[in-house]
Predict the 3D structure of the following.
Amino acid sequence: MCGIVGLHLKNPALHGQLGSLLAPMLDCMTSRGPDSAGLALYHDEGARTVMDVYKDVGLPKEICARYDIASRTGFQGIGHTRMATESAVTTEHSHPFTPTEQLALVHNGSFSNHATIRRRLVREGHVFDTDNDSEVAARYIADQMTKGADLDDAMRMVLKEFDGFFTLLVTTSSQFAVLRDSFACKPAVVAETADYVAFGSEYHALASLPGLAEATVFEPSPEVVYTWSR
Amino acid sequence: MVQVTEADTVLNCAELSTREVNAALAELPDGTHARITEPWGRHNLAVGLSNSCTIEIAGNAGYFIGGLGAGPAITVHGFVGWSVGENLMSGSITVHGNASECAGASAHGGRLVIHGDASARAGISLKGGTVLVGGDVGHMSGFMAQAGVLLVGGDAGDALGDSLYETVIYVAGRIASLGADARIEELTADDVLTVKRLVDKAGFDHIDPENVKRVASAKQLYNFDALKDQKY
């Protein structure tokens, strides 16, 4: 079990609140993942988009306080609370996994054929930081995109190549994408308003968001890639 | 829409823990009415109750709402998360909204009514309960359902009724695909009467009892056949 949250802010007026909106969402998912937690936050610096990654071992609330997440600004962010099932509890093993400077992935679930795909990627020259299964998906998606796929296509390839169960939330400098496995094994809720797209493993993670009562709330269908772009 | 009714007890989730809400509900005398306010997706509300009270949840609720219930009549004015009415024994749960996965899983008795859609695995492993969904149900609904009835007012997703035992599924809309060992059978006069009765109880007005499909087990997987192909 793990928890995932994400915010893609459509309304620039909310950019100053990215961290303060995301931190309580992450804290709310502590019951799904008390081992470690992490976030990837995106903001603009002039014409450049910068992704900052914070991850650590411990309770999500403590990690958010340690890195002063509530004061961070930006246009989107994703977060993960981890309950490790298949590899060590360390900062390196915690999510998000960020194979490139602009790509971040958080995963709830587990892959069963990650070792096979890892061996193939290693043969092609990829270098892994951990033995975590989710890192394989992150590097796989990055590899697909390097070879020319867009984020939608790269995520669809995950459906073809990976066995196991997963809810994935993946972000780039311009996109925010969600994908669930064929059986929708792991929970996922999306809430969309004119101001934001919010993702939570469970609805109550979204409860603190402004205007949630008026949001369009839905469960992403299995095998469908949902993408939002700036 | 939240219908405000007179409640003997109002329990506000913003002020109370789930344990405090459920302890207060368990103390309610039979015949009383309680309202739970500001649920905001709270899990495990009104679980494990055996008193004959009525409970309203004024908003969207989380997982396992009304699970293990043996008595109360629960109404949710909003949507619910996974496993609403799991292992329901008796009483009723009515959801005026959508339900997430595994609605009514393993329900032994009682009645679960969902006026919106239910997601994947609705009525999974049903053991005698009645699950009535006004809208659509997701994939693998009715999986391994052993007894009871699942009524679907809309469409059913893939692999409906996979590995069914004695549960009968009625579907008013389209069926994306049937699961292994599920088959569509001829609708009998008894079926029409059953569906009429269920539709009335649920308060659905969009289902024609004479125009539903009856899905039941073909019983080819019903027992493990040790001699099949003489492999064992």
Summary: Chain B has two helices and eleven strands. The mean pLDDT of chain B is 95.
